[in-house]
Every structure is written in structure tokens, then in C-alpha cells.
Design goal:
Length: 49
Amino acid sequence: MYKLINYFKLLSDETRLRIMVLLFHNEFCVCQITGITGISPAKCIETSG
């Protein structure tokens, strides 16, 4: 049940969803993700947790 809750939590956040889609297709470092999405490095790291 906990995994299912976390899954839907991930999908409900637009930034997390955008990062998830990127990482589904390839590996990226934080600087690449921030460049592609336009979000700050701090926000990128914050959404990973």
C-alpha cells in the first residue's frame, strides 16, 4: 500500500513527473536536468527525496 501511495504522490507533482519522464529515457546529472527543465538545482535535489 505504501508503494502505491508513493507512486501516486510522484505522479501528482509536475516537477517530479517531468524528471521521472526524463530519467525513464536516459541517465542525466542534476546540471543536465536543470538545463532541460529550467528548474533550479536546489528544487531538483529537493524533489528527489
